[in-house]
Amino acid sequence: MEDDKIRDLFSAFDPGLSSDIRFMDKLQRNIEAVDEVRRQVATNRRRNRIALAAAVLSGFVAGVVLMVLVQMFGDFGWSFDLALPYIGTKIMTLDCETIAWIVSAAISSIIAFNAYELTLAKAHDRST
Amino acid sequence: MERQQFISLVEGSQKAFRRFLAALCCGDLQLADDIAQESYLKAFVSCGSLKNPDRFKSWIFRIGYTTFIDCKRSQCSYSDYKAAEDMEAGEKADAPFEYQALYAALDKIPAKERTSILLFYMEGYSIKEIAEIEETSQEAVKQHLSRGRSHLRGILSN
Predict the structure, then answer these.
(1) What do you get for the CA distance between the two ends of chain A, in Å?
(2) Considering the domain B3-157 in this protein, what is its CATH number?
(3) Hey, are the CB atoms on B149 and A1 less than 8 Å from each other?
(4) pTM of the model
(5) Which of A23, A77, B16, B147 has the most CB atoms at less than 10 Å from its CB?
(6) ipTM of the predicted structure?
(7) Interior CA angle at B49 toward B45 and B54, to 5°?
């Protein structure tokens, strides 16, 4: 079968497609849905960034304040040794200043985490 | 790319694209339209990567071809009973039956040869353009065309 015959075979091909208007309407609805998802993703990303900034800021401020307090009042002059039970080998010595630093770090982390959660919740409430 | 620009590019290409897919799917118009919808959505999601809008038509044909191949691999069934209910009866109802012999012949040809034949003879793409659409070499396209022609010749002459 020559090229021309095959070309003729397909040139008159009209498969009876469904209405163009219906096809385009359906496509436009799907595109609108994709756009809506994109908007939601962008909004969530923005909210997360704001919450993260709030967490970093509050964690930093809490850390600095606690650091100053530890420096001013952290040393009571006592300490204790951490040792393995039943064996009695000393692992390390903890003085009250070290414990104060550890407690400050934990408090700063908790404050930062709570600030993140609160900011996220508030941003979500504002949008709904 | 703006949404309105994308829609106008779709309007300019959808008829030829759906016609191509209808032949590629051997007359399964519902499947062809579903693949067309999915292809256009994929194109919309990644329309930022299309630098030259003049190449939109060949780009959408490439997306349509890969979507068709993925569909064949997963043996997907897009049966949409709601769409079947909504179909308007009597609208060119006899049209599909005119091409039953052609669809049966196309169905017997491997998908790659069928694609090359349709892109070359129906859409008038060059071998180089077909190679870009199918993401293969020009030599491979020439082979597909040659084999596809002999298959079609053999089937339709019987």
Answers:
(1) 66
(2) 1.20.140.160
(3) yes
(4) 0.72
(5) A23
(6) 0.79
(7) 105
